[in-house]
Specification:
single chain, 146 residues, mainly beta, Immunoglobulin-like, 9-stranded mixed β-sheet, 9 strands, DUF6299, Pectin_lyase_fold/virulence, signal, DUF6299 domain-containing protein
Length: 146
């Protein structure tokens, strides 16, 4: 099978672009941008998880979100639970993320859990949007039946 030089050049260019793009960046942690996680979350009978907390961010020239993930037990598997668009005005705001684990709904149950919440901006770098983290919080919580 013969490979066309133009195809090879395009593939090489794409690979160089990806290698040259900076990795996910972190904003300086000066304590002014924060995200917290409430000590309890809820799980409904249909498996819907609700997590909440607060956040504060100063500015974002691009979209900023509060995302959250949840794990239980060994913590080897983490499940993304919703996302909320953040308002970056320097004021403290509440966030609430809700979601269901569709791949294995019985995987989560009431009891101890671990949550990671991130305050993240999507920055345009070339043709891609890469995450820039403003704040991260890891918190042990208790899931209670709703």
């Amino acid at each position: 099978m013969r490979v066309r030089p133009a195809a090879c050049a395009a593939a090489a260019g794409a690979a160089l672009f990806l290698l040259a793009a900076p990795a996910a960046t972190a904003a300086p942690d000066d304590g002014t941008e924060t995200v917290t996680v409430d000590r309890t979350g809820s799980i409904a009978t249909d498996g819907t998880i609700t997590l909440s907390g607060t956040y504060r961010c100063l500015s974002g020239t691009n979209p900023v979100f509060v995302s959250s993930s949840l794990s239980q037990g060994s913590g080897l598997t983490s499940y993304g639970i919703g996302g909320t668009r953040a308002v970056c005005d320097g004021q403290e705001h509440r966030w609430v993320n809700t979601g269901r684990v569709l791949s294995s709904p019985a995987a989560l149950k009431a009891g101890p859990a671990h949550v990671e919440a991130t305050l993240m901006e999507l920055r345009q770098v070339g043709l891609m949007q890469l995450p820039a983290f403003h704040a991260i919080q890891r918190q042990d919580i208790t899931l209670v039946e709703a």
